[in-house]
Each structure stands twice: as C-alpha cells, then as structure tokens.
Design brief:
alpha/beta; 52% helix; globular
C-alpha cells in the first residue's frame, strides 16, 4: 500500500528516532512510504492560541501539498492529526477550500488506528522485556476516540507487561501553549501525573504523542526517576532476540 508520511515538527526537529521508527514500522508492514517535501507545520500552535486567520496560509499550503496524490496520510502524532482533520471548519467561509480540506481529513490517520483498522494488524512481531505504563494523550483519546488501538498493539508485544495506574486518562498538563500560558497549573498537573506513574514503578513510559512524552519525561528526569520514555513506534520496532525466538 502506498502511504504519505507526515513527520510533524517535533518529529523533524526533536524526535527523529520516533519518525524513523514510524517509517520503518510502516515499511515492515508492507507500506511504500512517500514523503512530500513541501510539508510543513500544521499550524496547531497558532490555532490553539486563537490565531486562526494567521494559521490559514499554513493550512492551505499543507492541503496543496497532500493533494499531490490520493494516498492515505499517516501521522505519528494525534495532536497534529486532529488539527488537520479540523481544517474544514476553520475554512468554512471559503467553501472550495473547505471541501479540499475535508478531502484531506478523510485521508488522515494516526499511526496506531491505521495499523489496526486499515492494515488489519494487531501483532507486529515486537519484543520488549519489562513493565510499562501507557499515557493516552488528550488528542487521541478525547478528541479522536482512539483508545483501544494503541493498547491492542502494546498487548501483543512479547515480554511487555502493561500496568494500570491511577487517573491514567487525566491530562498531563502539556496542552501546547497551555503549558506556557498556564505554567503553574500545567506544572502541578504533570507533577500529579508523575506521582501516579511512579506508584506502580514502571520500566517504561509509552505514549503515542511526543509532546506529552516530552512533558512527562521532563518531569520524570527532573525528579530523578529512571523510567525510559518511548513513543509507541519505538516499542513496536523493538526486537529483543531472547524474547522473539
């Protein structure tokens, strides 16, 4: 299957290993990856801050970029996926652009739901030994309803034990510009999240949104907790020989 990969700003600038493993995973599952070089920021920071008019040029550029073909568009970040899926409502006063935006939205998938529902795969053959907690990001879980797909994939990782923890579905406090504008509240939210995570003493913190992982991981590091932070793509590309044979 031919697919487009939308790398996202964080994947491009800060977490290249996550982007690499997302591409390798899709290739492992039989996808041919297309990387449209004109892709750029989805405009989410401006949108979330209320600067809709200022964000429209970025929206239109991305729409034009992904109109180069008709293949599915896969993103490893729920927040970016949700932002792009919402373009049509922001462009409602320009009907032709709104229709084009809707066409792009219909081709947009987050990585985990694409693997489970479009490729029909629940076991990718990954192996990772240890105990882990999964943080469901607000964008995936609340806004897009993607709840079971990441968990289904993780439950099929050999050697990995998923641990429940208190208030696991509560926001980590990042929220993009929220963490800047409401820094004190955000700080208390992530502090509470880390407290609940460490109650179960995991080896790994796993998530499907890098922004949340940066926030929680930063707090874990500042508190001196030896928990390895991994995007789900990195977990699904794990292969420990003693477990896989």
């Amino acid at each position: 299957m031919d697919v487009n990969f939308y790398v996202t700003c964080i994947g491009d600038a800060l977490k290249s290993h996550m982007a690499r493993d997302s591409v390798l995973l899709l290739e492992k599952l039989g996808c041919r990856i297309h990387f449209l070089e004109r892709q750029g920021c989805c405009g989410q920071p401006a949108i979330n801050s209320g600067y809709i008019q200022d964000a429209k040029p970025a929206m239109k550029k991305l729409i034009e970029t992904f109109e180069a073909n008709s293949f599915p568009i896969i993103s490893p970040a729920g927040s970016c996926t949700y932002a792009i899926k919402g373009y049509a409502k922001y462009l409602a006063d320009e009907p032709k652009w709104a229709i084009r935006a809707e066409n792009i939205a219909n081709r947009m998938f987050d990585l985990t739901s694409f693997i489970v529902h479009q490729l029909g795969v629940v076991d990718v053959g990954a192996c990772l030994n240890g105990k882990a907690v999964y943080h469901p990001s607000c964008s995936l879980f609340r806004k897009m309803g993607v709840k079971e797909e990441p968990l289904t994939l993780l439950r099929h990782v050999k050697g990995l034990e998923l641990l429940p923890f208190e208030n696991m579905e509560t926001c980590c406090g990042f929220g993009g510009t929220f963490s800047v504008k409401m820094a004190e509240i955000s700080g208390e939210m992530v502090k509470e999240k880390v407290h609940h995570i460490m109650d179960v003493k995991p080896d790994y913190l796993i998530g499907a949104d890098v922004s949340c992982l940066l926030n929680i991981g930063g707090r874990l590091e500042r508190e001196g907790h030896p928990v390895k932070v991994l995007h789900i793509a990195q977990v699904l590309m794990s292969h420990e020989e003693e477990l896989c044979h």
